[in-house]
Every structure is written in C-alpha cells, then in structure tokens.
Write a structure and sequence with these properties.
Layout lengths: L10 E5 L2 E4 L4 E4 L2 H4 L8 H13 L10 H12 L5 E5 L2 H20 L5 E5 L8 H5 L17 E4 L4 H13 L4 E6 L2 E2 L5 E2 L2 H14 L2 E5 L23 E4 L10 E5 L19 H16 L2 H22 L4 E7 L2 E6 L7 H10 L2 E2 L1 E2 L4 E4 L7 H18 L1
Parallel strand pairs: 3-15, 5-6, 5-7, 7-10, 10-11
Antiparallel strand pairs: 1-2, 2-3, 4-12, 8-9, 11-12, 13-14, 14-17, 16-17
Helix pairs in contact: 2-8, 3-8, 9-11, 10-11
C-alpha cells in the first residue's frame, strides 16, 4: 500500500555504520533503522546467535515457558528499576499495553469509572489507534477520527501547563489515572526532558497515586549514553516501554513495570509472537554487547563529538540553523522557523552526499546512528552533512 513516501534508494546490505545500494554505492547510515540497529548492521555476535537460535527454535507461543524470554526478562529487570516484563512486537504495542495497564490502575487502585491519561503535546507514541490517540500531534489523528477517548495534553517540560490541566480535569470530575511521557521527545523534535519538571512530576504522581509511564521506545537501550533515558532525569517511572534498539533490528517490544504497578492477571493481555525465542535471543545479545563492549561510554564520547561538530556547523550557517539539542547519539539539528529550508530538503541533499539522516518534524534533522559508530565515522558524518548544507546555500 502507498503508506510510505520512500526515498529513491534501495539498500541491499549493511555492515556496522554503513549500507550499500543496489548500485554498490556506499552510504554512511545515521538513521540505523530509526534508532533501531543499535549495535550496527550485520553484527557478528548477533548474527551467530540468531543462526544458532534458528537451528534450535524460533517460535513456541506463550502457552509454554520460554527460557530465552525468561533470560531477557532477568537481564532487563536486573539492569533497570522494573520488576517484571511483558513482551510484545513493537513500540506501539508496548504503549498499547501501557495504556491498558494505566486504565486498570485507574479502575482497581483509584475506583475511576473513566480513567484519563495525560500526555505531552508534540509527543509520539505509535500508530495503532490508541497509541496515536495518545500522541500529542493532531496531524497524526486526521482522517482516523474518532480517536480513542481518555487522553488530554499538556505542554512538554511546562509545569504550569501540566498543573493547570490536572486541576481543570479534577474540577470537572474527570479523574487522572496516569501520565504517559517521553524522557526525551523523538518525533517531536529531539527535545530532552527538563530535570526540574520531571522531579516535580514524579513527586506529584506519587502524592496523587497517578501512574507515571515513560515511553523509552527511542531513548532506551543506551541511545542517550545511559542505559535508560530516565537516568538522566534522576527519577524512576512506575512503568516504561521499550522497542526499537532492544532487538538490534529485530521486532520486539516490552512493557516493564515495578511490582507496585504490575496489575495484569492471566487473560488481561497477550501476544502470539511477543517474547518468542528468536526475538528474545536478539534482545539478550544486544544487551550483553552493550555491556561487553562498553558501548555506553562510546555513546557518551561520540555523542559529545557529534554535538560539538553540529555546533560548529550551526555557527557556519547562522541564517538557517537555530540550535543543536539531544542526548548521546540522539541529536537534532534545528532549523530556524524563518528559514526557507526544511528538514526534508536537507535530508535529500545529504542523500546525494551518501549520508542517511532522518527528520523529526519539518524543522529538525535527526541523527541516531548505531551505538558502535567510530570517531572517524562521526567526522565523516559531519563532513557530509556540511557539504549537503553548502549545496543548499
């Protein structure tokens, strides 16, 4: 179906931070499947483990115990604030599960008939109907109305906006069960969370018995230089969601919850493919490779190198560029609103320079390369991005 406006490029293979076209042209990949190929293309450890898994077992269903699933769940809970995990296939599915969990919390723990979930404006939580309804960007709702009810929106990082919305809803007898929020907004323009805002939010949710849910689909699994985005904020969510980088390019999502928020009972939620041996083996190898290769340190160093280089580029093009923002290897180059340039134009120009970057809205160019990217590759990224901007000036 015509759901994608594709770029004029067919990719036939990849290795590390590089991909090759059908014409054997080599491209530096700063998209990584949109923050998904976390340990690079055709990673040796991942390749070997998955070949071995295919020879053993790739799917059995959740009717039975799955050792690979249990092992990945242990790794995730040992290395996070969570106590339990539900596995699914994507970020949207993980957020769907979180929405259901939030509503159950509202009914069971708060005796709310029609629970409300608060989410941020400019957020993005997925393309399924409930997840897109929780997304604070009306452009994603158009043509799919009526959206799922039970979501209200406040301005990201704006405590007054959040507090005013909460008080208005409570005054009208609408009761809030949960807050769903990204620790760093991705599709909304690569906007890091404000530490003070999130600390106020955490304290408020604790006081009101409101479930605090973080969407870590893009920020999780080391993307920001720490394993989880929430670690930058000094707060722990009650629940958080994962996908993208968790499988290193293979389809897997997860809902993680603290014991106090783990309300699901048998029959409440399920997934045929979720947590199958193949996907869980992929997730486990990604996690172990992040630790074995000390990739969090690499993300921090290379992220700072990328940020510094982007700042230098910004200073060379003051007429068009506004700021650089992000964390680790999740960086955004922001175009001035008054500039005639769009993110799409820069992306197409970069494509001609054999560089792959991705938009985060009409005025932000996003770079989310593999966590394994090297110093020389970052320099090459910056060189090609600068050349693409020169050609547009």
């Amino acid at each position: 179906m015509g759901t994608y406006k594709r770029f004029p490029l067919t990719i036939k293979k990849g290795k590390g931070s590089w991909v090759w076209s059908n014409e054997n042209e080599k491209y530096l990949d700063a998209v990584a499947g949109i923050a998904t190929c976390s340990i690079g293309h055709s990673n040796k450890a991942l390749r070997r483990a998955l070949v071995a898994q295919l020879k053993k077992l790739q799917h059995i269903s959740n009717l039975y115990k799955i050792p690979e699933q249990e092992e990945l769940a242990r790794w995730l809970t040992i290395n996070s604030c969570a106590d339990s995990v539900f596995f699914c296939n994507s970020g949207a599915e993980a957020n769907e599960a979180a929405i259901k969990l939030a509503r159950k919390h509202g009914h069971i723990n708060r005796s709310i008939d029609k629970p409300i979930i608060l989410a941020a404006k400019e957020s993005f939580h997925g393309r399924t109907l409930a997840a897109v309804s929780a997304t604070g960007q009306p452009k994603y709702h158009r043509g799919f109305e009526p959206v799922v009810q039970g979501f209200e929106f406040f301005s990201y990082n704006n405590w007054q906006s959040f507090e005013n919305l909460f008080e208005r809803l409570e005054a009208n007898t609408s009761r809030v069960a949960a807050v769903l929020i990204e620790p760093i907004q991705g599709e909304g323009g690569v906007v890091p969370g404000d530490i003070q805002f999130f600390k106020l939010l955490k304290d408020f949710c604790n006081k009101k018995n409101v479930l605090l849910i973080f969407d870590e689909v893009q920020s999780g699994m080391g993307r920001t230089g720490l394993l989880w985005g929430y670690e930058h904020l000094g707060v722990e969510p009650d629940v958080f969601t994962l996908a993208k980088g968790l499988g290193g390019g293979h389809a897997i999502g997860a809902l993680l919850a603290k014991k106090s928020a783990d309300l699901f009972k048998p029959g409440d939620h399920a997934s045929t493919f979720g947590g199958n041996p193949f996907a869980c083996k992929a997730g486990l190898i990604v996690g172990k490779e992040i630790q074995r290769r000390n990739l969090l340190k690499n993300v921090t160093i290379r992220g700072k190198q990328l940020e510094t280089g982007l700042m230098e580029i910004l200073q060379e093009f003051p007429r068009h560029l506004h700021e650089v923002r992000g964390l680790g290897l999740m960086q955004g180059l922001v175009i001035k609103n008054e500039s005639s340039l769009t993110s799409q134009e820069i992306i197409l120009s970069a494509l001609r320079e054999k560089l792959l970057v991705v938009a985060a809205g009409a005025k932000v160019v996003r770079m989310v390369p593999p966590l394994t990217i090297t110093k020389n590759e970052i320099n090459e990224l910056l060189k090609r991005l600068k050349a693409s901007l020169i050609s547009l000036s």
